[in-house]
Write a structure and sequence with these properties.
single chain; 429 residues; alpha+beta; Beta-Lactamase; 4 domains; five-stranded antiparallel beta sheet; 13 helices; 52% helix
Length: 429
């Protein structure tokens, strides 16, 4: 059974044998000797089929391993290429970038969020980029286009964009491979290239632009991604960023994309109850570590940070009307990466970031409250109609059932609304 046609033939033969066995099992057609012979042949055929399937499974595993090696070699070649390559889904959502692309966009992978590649470019050029995607998906030739690339540090550069369809060797999924070629490349690209610090006037304009951008976002995730993306404007030596929050249990967690280094450092702060993030949130003050290798304030945190290659750390509380609840944490490999000038800039930046985050969190809470109120109102209406009682009595019935069975009121209301069941019937099952 090495082909679909052979499999169909084998299944058809099994069906024929099944019909013969059914006929032999009837009183009129019973023949013990013939049935035994038929069963023996069927057993032998199944044994052979099982062995063939085992061999094919081994061949499949071997092919999968070879494809994995091909994928690894491909990624290694892309990473070592002097050309900027980006791999996206068939719809253009970024999946993978090589090192040259990271340097071109001035955005390390740890800070990159999965978004359409068209959003990397100037608004006027996004339609041209999307049309390239449409042509390639339709099987047409994707001609090169010129577009203005917007870098993570808010600078721009003109690039030539070319794209071709590829297939993921591991799962056969269609991918798009983009090649970005800068028209006026920099004289040199080095692994640790840093963005020059802008003049004060230019920085003020950028902060105003950042504040305007943050005011347009409508979700917490969008604001977090925008803040983490923009912070390098005011702190160019930043290599890793996170917005951390402390819950009522004293656990420090990062909002936004998961990052192993941040998670490990948050874990040691939560376990010891000490660290720059904890202190910034508790005291509403900027906390700065020039060199974790020599800092003595939080030995556990400093030792782990130095072990992970992080030497400079700064935690800046984000503005909140009821006191600090979150902090912006920045990390760098170099010693004293955040001087006094950068600290002042970060404080201004944190005001805008904190206000934007507070706004979208308040809006999200308000939307949840409205949805919960509507849900409870619907469940009250169901009980009023069914039991012929007043709305106050129906609401009290829901509250009592919620308390008696230790279930949140909105969760109980959801069950009543979705199923139409009475609270007494829900818990009697």
């Amino acid at each position: 059974m090495t082909s679909p046609a052979e499999l169909v033939t084998f299944l058809a033969d099994l069906d024929v044998r099944r019909e013969r066995l059914l006929q032999m099992a009837t009183p009129s057609g019973f023949d013990a000797q013939s049935m035994a012979a038929e069963l023996r042949e069927l057993g032998e055929q199944l044994i052979i089929a099982d062995e063939e399937l085992r061999v094919q499974q081994e061949e499949l595993e071997d092919s999968r391993a070879r494809l994995a090696l091909v994928a690894t070699d491909r990624d290694a070649l892309m990473d070592s290429s002097v050309d900027a390559y980006v791999v996206t889904t068939a719809d253009g959502v970024v999946l993978y970038t090589n090192r040259t692309a990271d340097l071109l966009t001035r955005c390390p992978p740890a800070r990159r969020t999965p978004r359409p590649i068209a959003t990397w470019f100037d608004v006027a050029d996004r339609g041209r980029v999307r049309s390239v995607i449409s042509r390639v998906r339709a099987g047409e030739s994707g001609d090169e286009v010129r577009a203005v690339l917007r870098r993570a540090d808010k600078t721009t550069t003109t690039v030539t964009v070319a794209v071709e369809p590829t297939t993921d060797p591991q799962n056969g999924t269609v991918r798009l491979r983009w090649k970005l070629r800068e028209e006026r490349p920099a004289l040199r690209l080095v692994a640790d290239e840093q963005v020059p610090q802008p003049p004060a006037g230019e920085l003020a304009n950028r902060l105003a632009s950042i504040a305007a951008d943050l005011a347009c976002y409508e979700s917490v995730d969008e604001v977090i991604a925008a803040v983490l993306d923009a912070v390098r404007t005011v702190a160019p030596k930043t290599e890793l960023t996170a917005i951390v929050t402390r819950d009522r249990r004293g656990i420090l967690t990062a909002l936004g994309p998961a990052q192993d280094t941040v998670a490990a450092l948050n874990k040691v702060q939560s376990r010891t109850g000490q660290g720059p993030g904890m202190t910034a949130i508790a005291t509403d003050a900027v906390v700065h570590i020039e060199d974790t290798a020599s800092d003595l304030r939080w030995p556990g945190f400093a030792a782990l940070a130095a072990e992970l290659g992080v030497h400079s750390v700064i935690a800046v509380p984000l503005s909140h009307p009821r006191g600090p609840r979150t902090a912006l944490m920045l990390f760098a490999r170099s010693v004293d990466a955040f001087d006094e000038d950068v600290q002042r800039r970060l404080v201004m930046f944190a005001v805008h970031a904190g206000l934007a985050l507070t706004r979208v969190q308040a809006e999200a809470n308000l939307r949840r409250a409205i949805d919960t109120r509507q849900l409870i109102g619907q469940s009250v209406g169901i009980l009023v109609e069914r039991r012929r009682i007043t709305p106050a009595e129906a609401f009290q019935s829901l509250v009592s059932a919620s308390q008696d069975h230790n279930i949140k009121l909105h969760q109980l209301a959801r069950v009543v609304t979705d199923t139409g069941l009475d609270p007494d019937d829900i818990f009697s099952v």
